[in-house]
Amino acid sequence: MTGTLYLIPVPLGPSTPQEVLHPGVLATLRPLRHFVVEQAKSARAFLKAAGTDLPLQELQLAELNEHTRPAELDRLLSPLRAGHDIGLLSEAGCPAVADPGADLVALAQRENIRVVPLIGPSSLLLALMASGLNGQRFAFQGYLPAKDGERLKALRDLEAESRKRQQTQLFIETPYRNRAMFDAILLACQGNTRLCVATDLSLPGESVRTRTITEWKKQTPPDIERRPTVFLLLA
Fold it and tell me: Is residue 71 scored above 90 in pLDDT?
């Protein structure tokens, strides 16, 4: 019998696990000994706050991030093959969504290992829920190109696709480039296209505002620099 891979969400920012996560999620997490995490230091801080049945020093934490080579994925499944459960943690929000943990989940699925997603915060769905944009048809595009010309082209292509399909387009940016992304959207998109800027979701400074491009141009730019933000547009 193989173990189960539990996909454990974490808060989107400085909130306690008890404020954000369902008690059933915490109950599933606490007896686990094995974890796959993006960064061991931040994962230990989360696990300490969530509470574990075992002392922190007895937990086995293996890192999976952008530096992990594909050949190293196989060994991360070793505890599962030995019959032990594993908890997969992201740095923020839900594992395997815009997250390197997706590669581990894919490998577990290929080996018919049980994968269980647990309930928790997703910045993408929270932003879509509060945006007032089309929640029937939407697509997440991840990160757009960082170079100015390529980014403008990508935005115009997304706007055209949104108009054609009446599909909400969601994308994110590295927080320190948020303002550059916002300015590029105003430059690339047409006046009647609606843009939602969703910042610090589930945190005390949360802000979700949807305006047309024309309306955004008449307002003071939102305070989004170095703050986690989701952008959504609908032409």
Answer: no
